[in-house]
Amino acid sequence: MNPINHVAIIMDGNGRWGLKNKKSRNAGHKAGLKTVEKIIKASMKKKIKFLTLFAFSTENWKRPKKEVVYLFNLLEDFLKNQLESLHKRNIKLKFIGSRNFSKNLNKLLNLAEKKTLNNENLQINLALNYGSKIELLEAFKGMQKTKAKVNERNFIKHLQTKNIPDPDLLIRTGNTNRLSNFLLWQLAYSEIFFEKKLWPDFNKNDYYKILDKFKSIKRNFGNI
Ligand code: IPE
Ligand code: IPE
Ligand code: MG
């Protein structure tokens, strides 16, 4: 039985769900937030220590302004409304990605991290304006500035995920089989599950099924 320490998720399919069910992509984002709450609860129940959620990529700025604004308002409301409850549940919040948002949002993200810093239950890493290629380039630059030997152990200290173990498994919902610039280094040995359901339709039973399947996989890491 494989232990599950870290689950990473590409929460894809909100837009399609919204168009199909409510004639608006943004309605899909709103519905997707409910799934986030369900999956947080389910992860706590399964005693998972790290949950990394891809919420907004460095490429998602290409979307229409109306959608981008909606997404960031949704995030801001979520943090404002849920921070206290997340804190009470002993959840630690961390944001990965380039933090160059509005002054207000930057402040809110810093506050959320600071408030929950010493929490010891689930750690949620929210990937916001995150792109793996930029992360790697920044890490190379960071490495160049030090005299440390270039090796794996020293290199990972320059990644945004330093102090976070690599994901044991990656789930991507939305019936699309690609990584979309997510955690390219960290996923080197993760088990990958592509799920047909759109993110707002994904539920805790779908999640538990994947976790069960993961547990019985023979992970070789190059060995036999
Ligand atoms: C994922 O859902 C959420 C974000 C990228 C913010 P999408 O918005 O990509 O949904 P689809 O893939 O267009 O259906
Ligand atoms: C990946 O989904 C990013 C997030 C889920 C935040 P996208 O919908 O942006 O991915 P592509 O563009 O279809 O590859
Ligand atoms: Mg998508």
What does this structure look like?
It is a single chain. The protein has 224 residues and is of the alpha/beta class. The chain has a six-stranded parallel sheet with strand order 3-4-2-1-5-6. Strand 3 (92-96), helix 4 (103-116) and strand 4 form a beta-alpha-beta unit. The protein starts with 5 loop residues before the first strand and ends in a 9-residue tail after the last helix. The chain has a single domain (6-215), classed as 3-Layer(aba) Sandwich (Undecaprenyl pyrophosphate synthetase). It has seven helices and six strands, in the order E-H-H-E-H-E-H-E-H-H-E-E-H. Residues 11-16, 56, 60, 71, 174 line the site of one 3-methylbut-3-enyl trihydrogen diphosphate. Magnesium ion is lined by residues 12, 174.
